[in-house]
Amino acid sequence: MRSLVRSAAVVAAGTLVLVFGACGGEGTESSGGGGGGGASTTVKIGLNAEPENLDFTTTDGAAIPEALLVNVYEGLVKLNEEGEIVPLLAKSWDLSKDRRTYTFQLQEGAKFSNGDPFNADAVKFSIERVQSDDWKISLKSYMDVVDQVKVNSPTEVEVVLKQPSNNWLFQMTTRIGAMFSPNGVDDLANTPIGTGPYLLERWTRGDSILLSQNPDYWGEKPPMEAVTLRYFKDATALNNALLSGAIDVINDIQAPDSLTQFTGDDRFQVIEGTTNGEITLALNNESGPMKDTRIRQAISKGLDREAILKTAWAGRGELIGSMVPPTDPWYEDLTDVHGYDPEAAKQLLAEAGASDLEIRFRVPNLPYATAPAQVVKSQLAKIGVTANIDVLEFPARWLAEVFTKADYDMSIVQHVEPRDIVTFGNPDYYWRYDSPKVQKLLAEGDKGSEEEQTEALKQVARTLAEDAAAAWLYVFPNITVTKKGIEGLPQNRVSESLDLTEITRG
Q: What is the pLDDT at residue 297?
């Protein structure tokens, strides 16, 4: 999730964006070793969604990979800010002519933070573990296409696919591509052991995660000796922490209408970019009133998305009409498929015999969800639909009841996993959408040429929009506010990770 949920919720998940915490207080701490640093080589970042635990192999949601992926755990490859796949633990790779075998040349001298060497055996272990029962999250299905992993030497490994896949290497940039030591998976919920440039120094539950520089990192060490991730449930408290100097950065500001207090202050700088996080009005396609296509279409036509964006997020963000952000190759503007038309919405409800409809609107207690939820509730009331808002604690309760059990009619979540349109090919995913047509198009697109994949996924996106499989609101903006002199944070967030490896402060 970032879905599920910057999922989380990320879950993301597919994965689910789903992206809380007190300003201090006591908590349980987990130590991973490492050292701190002086004030000039540390930075404190404020966030709004704390991980439930530190194990993204069994727990959905985007908060865990946001903190740990690339920073503590590394994969063979990662995404750069432009969304391109670039080398990480793999120096290079070749793809066979039949597009089924990837041969990776691995970095030499890399090792895990417990001292174990990173090598081809670790790659084989990590990939096969995703395919085992040890991995629980829905994203693991992306590894189903792998037939076998062959160790050619300590620094060369072959991954043989069952069939060509355009999606597999891209998904290896997500959490499923993280590399693990066979001796480092006994306590993933508390003690992450990776090859990355940072170590878990301390986790104070309900407050913060302290990452310290890995003294034995195989690559170029990051400029910061330590980075603290501090979590705040309340957007006002988060803003006040920056104003008071308690933190140095707000990542993904949660109260955009408050930006004026920073833009007019010479102490701060505002960085605006984009994400691939779709703010999605999720609909339960399997049970309850939303299993009727006409009702889903009516809900979609009853939404004035421009007003939602303006009211809930100060007009920042970009409207979308399906599960595709503009950064994806198969993006098309589908906002007019079920555009705002309240009279047509009322007619569809009448045809469905759904007068005086009441729906359960269960949303996570995160600002990106609660703010638009109120606007959605008000707009739906105008077409005769009563949306009863039930705010659930995130991540634990929302993940348990909505994401896992699908016990809801409608929800709002930010899905931050890259290219997560493929989640609609999984009928067990929490929106319970089961379309053989979509499943066939996704399969054909994955094994076809890049051009065939693009065309197939455009058809998937349009089908989802026409079916109103969900109601998409907008792509979440990436608005970061920092103290002057802090540089190196990504302007655009197009992966699950908050990459901390290039932060500097003047």
A: 98
The burial of 336, by beta-carbon neighbours within 10 Å (0-12 exposed, 13-18 middle, 19 or more buried), is given as exposed
Residue 68 backbone dihedrals phi, psi, to 5 degrees:
-105, -30
pLDDT tens digits, one per residue of 231-259:
998 889 999 999 999 999 999 888 788 89
Residues 336 and 426 in one domain: yes
Residue 446 tokens read as 């994955």
Residue type, 505: R
The residue segments making up the domain with residue 383 are 275-477
Q: Give the Cα separation of 186 and 176 in Å (integer).
A: 18
Q: What is the pLDDT of residues 267-302, one digit of tens each?
A: 999 999 999 999 999 999 999 999 999 999 999 999
- Name residue 388's beta-bridge partners: 360
Task: Report the SS3 class of residue 213.
Answer: strand
Query: For position 42, which CATH number holds?
Result: 3.40.190.10
Task: Copy the structure tokens of residue 273.
Answer: 């970019």
Token pair for 137 = 């999250």
Shared-domain flag, residues 329 and 443:
yes
pTM (2 d.p.): 0.85
- In the structure encoding, which two tokens stand for residue 431, read together? 């929106």
